[in-house]
Amino acid sequence: MKRWTTGQVSKQRNVSVRTLRYYDQINLLTPSFKDDNGRRYYSEEDLFKLEKIIILKSLSLPLENIRDLLDRLSYKQILISHHNYLQDRLSKLQTSISNTKSLINMIDLEESLSWERVSQLIQISQNSSKKWIDYFEVDEKVFLQESIPNLGNNDWTTHQYISLLRRIEWCIKHDIKPESDEGHQIACELIEISNVTFQGDTKLMEKFWEVRKLPSEETGLYPISEVVLEYVERCIANVTGDE
Amino acid sequence: MKRWTTGQVSKQRNVSVRTLRYYDQINLLTPSFKDDNGRRYYSEEDLFKLEKIIILKSLSLPLENIRDLLDRLSYKQILISHHNYLQDRLSKLQTSISNTKSLINMIDLEESLSWERVSQLIQISQNSSKKWIDYFEVDEKVFLQESIPNLGNNDWTTHQYISLLRRIEWCIKHDIKPESDEGHQIACELIEISNVTFQGDTKLMEKFWEVRKLPSEETGLYPISEVVLEYVERCIANVTGDE
DNA sequence: ATATTAGATGACGTTACGTAACCTGCAAGC
DNA sequence: GCTTGCAGGTTACGTAACGTCATCTAATAT
Predict the structure, then answer these.
(1) A17 touches strand C (CB under 7 A)
(2) How many A/B residue pairs have CB atoms within 8 Å?
(3) In the 34-73 stretch of chain A, whose C-beta falls under 7 Å of nucleic acid strand C?
(4) CA–CA separation, B243 vs B240, rounded Å?
(5) Helices A115-124 and A75-110 sit at what angle, rounded to 10 degrees?
(6) pLDDT band (50, 70, 90) for residue B6
């Protein structure tokens, strides 16, 4: 049976020796064997445990909780929750990116930017209200989401739409034509989002846009005004007619 | 001229009152006006400054550096570097997700998973070697990258490829046929990556795959063995012949 | 024989605040 | 007039997850 010293584990797993000693100290990961001189030796099982710890830590749950959970969770459970977590961050990131792009565009267009605009856009991407525990209860839901991705409760699409709609409203207000560069960009992003959401299922997509036209009380979706819809259609018509 | 108290700013910008006092304390953001009683009052300019701070903080650069930089950077510069940062994180996140998915798949296939596999896949997505400064020097490069995305130095595609190649090698070693589900999945992901990279330019794509066949010394790319290439081609043939 | 490693321990430092204890000025209600 | 509550203030200590010395020991390399 092989055993590794702190230094070896440190290099292999890319954690500091100090960290390993710390984990020993707080009884999170005690090496399964100790020398007469107090040297730590880690077994293969210990390494697996460490791996678990690293993953759980990346869910940003505190070490104290990890200690309590570690033995009660299977590798698969951990990985799935990790996956949930990553997906969540992905969606938020994408919203952030889209907003940041909008801001940069606005600066280019306006030179100076109005205060409300900035604060509105930035505020959305802030607070990460979810706690780590949220990534666990889901269970089988993941696999469902994997086969029918990004529809319904997965909120990144929604955020994306809302962000785009804001931009469109802003364009309308500032009388920027759908034929302009900004209009072109909006169309492209809209198409991309639709593609991601419906994965090429054009029928489903059309149906979705039909639903969008209904008042929001009936659908529970973010309402879209007639003006915006018209604008969107003109944007897209402009692009698809292009080539 | 309007002025806001700590409490108002706190609510509006979603930072704690303590944070505002702290920023005052360390001379990062001193309100432009103070009461006889020591009450802080923030001007609109102060709020803009706070916004800058929040963005810079999200680049995870320490407050001390922010203090030194704050007045020397325009809003646009900050936003662009922020954008760079977000893009970087996005690419890493996507690699992480892909790796995590692979791991989950492996558990499903093998029930137990081999140690080396796990560690290999996880290690890639770790250390974020980049420092915040890296997001600044770039300047005009961003816009170039925006028009020709994901080619060359942008390393998320590379990571994706490498991760996929690892999976393929693993499949070959375990004698999993390209016609299997796993093979199908690999083909799908390959196609998706290619689409993202080349944005539908099939000619460029084919050329790229030709280049891939050359030995790596000449191209500087990650080398692909003949076996793998053949496997890939069989996977893809299998999918495109499908429907 | 000596120098260099690779390990160990103990103690203090760090960041960006949270939190508790306690004080102040002012408007509203009794 | 008095209390009460609230929104503001200060001072001071606490926190997480280690990083960073300083100092010590055992084993290996030259």
Answers:
(1) yes
(2) 75
(3) 37-40
(4) 7
(5) 170
(6) very high
Whether ipTM tops 0.90, in short, is no
Distance CA B9, CA B31 (A): 11
d(CA B23, CA B43): 15
Taking each continuous run of H as one helix and of E as one strand, the counts in chain B are 12, 2
Lookup result for tokens 């107090």? A38
- Contacts B122 to A, Cβ<8 Å: 51, 54-55
* Domain made up of B6-72: CATH architecture: Orthogonal Bundle (1.10)
Report yes or no: B231 and B178 within 8 Å, Cβ to Cβ. yes
Under a CB-based contact definition with an 8 Å cutoff, are residues A80 and A142 in contact?
Answer: yes
DSSP reduced 3-state for A224: coil
Q: Where in chain A is the domain with CATH 1.10.1660.10?
A: 6-72
Task: Name every chain B residue with its beta carbon within 8 A of the beta carbon of A107.
Answer: 75-76, 79
Q: Is residue A41 within 8 Å of residue A63, measured between CB atoms?
A: no
DSSP 8-state assignment for residue B152: T
**A18 CA to D23 C1', in Å?**
16
**Nucleotides of strand D lying closer than 7 angstroms to a protein CB:** 7-11, 16-20, 25-26
Q: Does residue B40 sit in helix, strand or coil?
A: strand
Q: For chain A, first and last CA: distance in Å?
A: 66
Instruction: Measure CA of the first residue to CA of the last residue in chain B; give whole Å.
Output: 67
| B51: chain A residues, CB-CB within 8 Å | 118-119, 122
Type of residue numbered A74: S
pLDDT confidence of residue A48: 87
What's the rounded mean pLDDT across residues B103-118? 63
